């Protein structure tokens, strides 16, 4: 059941990703430094169908007093990481790219299946379930935060 849902989501995403999402340089150096945030539960779920995009989820808290807007996500070993939101239109659930994610001070934000998430169009095949890979977040204003995301099998099992 879980796997079925994920597969249909991934298909919708793939279309959006190819038409609207586009470019990101292959292997940029990940940035140093950090913003006043805490990220937990970072995980990349591998696609159920090889070649489809992978999804990145995490929970983020803004520990500061100022509003933050997440602007860019880079995944080591992944190309074309884009922020998406899940939305329903005419009874059909699909995904659309979003330009950023607001992280209001003191209000945790969860990127999760069925909500906001990050799609990774191409993930290095060397990244397998059970491993980790660094993820870098860049906020408006240039603050950056880096964490390691766990890599999980499709459906979140294993
Ligand atoms: Cu998506």
CATH architectural category: Sandwich
Q: Quick one: biggest sheet?
A: 10 strands, mixed
Number of strands: 10
* Tally of DSSP helical segments: 1
Pairing-aware structural class of the strands and helices? mainly beta
The outline comes out as: globular
State the CATH topology.
Immunoglobulin-like
SSE pattern: HEEEEEEEEEE
| Average predicted local confidence, pLDDT | 83
Tell me the name of the CATH homologous superfamily. Answer: PCu(A)C copper chaperone
Tally of individual domains: 1
Low-confidence stretches at least 5 residues in length (pLDDT < 50)? 1-22
Radius of gyration: 15 Å
Distinctive features:
about 160 residues; mainly beta; Immunoglobulin-like; disordered N terminus; binds copper (II) ion
A few lines on this structure:
With 158 residues, the protein is mainly beta. The protein is built from 1 helix and 10 strands, in the order H-E-E-E-E-E-E-E-E-E-E.
Describe this structure in words.
The chain is mainly beta and 158 residues long. It has one domain: Immunoglobulin-like (Sandwich), CATH 2.60.40. Helices cover 13% and strands 47% of the residues. Strands 1, 2, 3, 4, 5, 6, 7, 8, 9 and 10 form a ten-stranded mixed sheet that branches. A hairpin with a 2-residue loop joins strand 4 and strand 5. The longest helix has 20 residues. The N terminus is likely disordered. The protein binds copper (II) ion. Copper (II) ion binds next to strand 8.
């Amino acid at each position: 059941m879980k796997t079925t849902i994920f597969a249909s989501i991934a298909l919708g995403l793939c279309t959006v990703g190819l038409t609207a999402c586009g470019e990101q340089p292959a292997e940029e150096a990940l940035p140093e430094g950090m913003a006043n945030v805490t990220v937990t539960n970072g995980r990349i779920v591998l696609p159920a169908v090889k070649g489809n995009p992978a999804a990145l989820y995490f929970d983020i808290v803004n520990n500061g007093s100022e509003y933050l807007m997440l602007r860019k996500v880079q995944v080591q070993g992944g190309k074309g990481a884009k922020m998406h939101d899940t939305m329903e239109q005419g009874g059909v659930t699909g995904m659309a790219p979003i330009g950023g994610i607001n992280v209001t001070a003191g209000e945790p934000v969860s990127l999760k299946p069925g909500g906001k998430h990050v799609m990774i169009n191409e993930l290095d095949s060397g990244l397998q379930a059970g491993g980790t890979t660094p993820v870098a977040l860049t906020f408006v204003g240039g603050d950056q935060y880096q964490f390691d995301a766990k890599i999980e099998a499709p459906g979140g099992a294993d």
